[in-house]
Amino acid sequence: MSFMVRKAERQDMPQVLDLIKELAVFEKEPDAVEVTVEDLEKEGYGNNPLFHCFVAELDEKIVGIALVYYRFSTWKGRTIHLEDLIVSESHRGTGIGMALYKKVMEFADDNKVKRVEWNVLDWNTNAIEFYENTGAHILDDWRVVQMSKEGLDNFVNKYL
């Protein structure tokens, strides 16, 4: 099996969205994806792109993606957040995930960031083991905090 990892192009976004939806099913949130192809194209390929995406392509089909964006740490400076690393279920265990992971780390190194960070579900033991085997540290004492659109609307109506 010979696959290629490359920077995603605008025309890849429909297949990228398909993989995002596949991940949502895997993560037991099949109806959670609200982003559209148009959103991905607009936000990733305008004058000020909000993310960078890499794809793994096999026989002209995208079978994996890694989507990253810059963040700023008050302690470290510029960092990269790995939003998602997705490999189609039928292609897991073939080296595609590692190839995408390497591409992200190469991108981080080339851009001289101080840290790469991401989230992993506590039940995704395969991913946790993979990350730990590469030298990444799982921070058990930190909690992910999010404010949903509904929560934001409620906050604004109550406090602003």
Explain this structure.
The protein is of the alpha+beta class. The chain contains 5 helices and 5 strands; from the N terminus they run βααβββαβαα. It has a 5-stranded mixed β-sheet with strand order 1-2-3-4-5. Helix 3 links the parallel strand 4 (77-87) and strand 5 (116-117). Helix 1 (13-26) packs across helix 2 (37-45). The protein is globular, with a radius of gyration of 17 Å. The model has no long low-confidence stretch (mean pLDDT 97).
Keywords:
5 helices, 5-stranded mixed β-sheet, 5 strands, alpha+beta, 160 residues, single chain, globular, Aminopeptidase
Overall number of structural domains: 1
Helix percent reads 25-40%
Specify the number of helices.
5
CATH topology: Aminopeptidase
Strand order of the largest sheet: 1-2-3-4-5
Name the average pLDDT: 97
**Rg, nearest Å:** 17 Å
Largest sheet: 5 strands, mixed
CATH top level class name: Alpha Beta
List the helices and strands and how they pair.
Elements: E1 4-7, H1 13-26, H2 37-45, E2 52-58, E3 61-73, E4 77-87, H3 96-110, E5 116-117, H4 125-133, H5 149-159
Parallel strand pairs: 4-5
Antiparallel strand pairs: 1-2, 2-3, 3-4
Helix pairs in contact: 1-2
Brief description of this entry?
This protein has helices at residues 13-26, 37-45, 96-110, 125-133, 149-159; strands at 4-7, 52-58, 61-73, 77-87, 116-117.
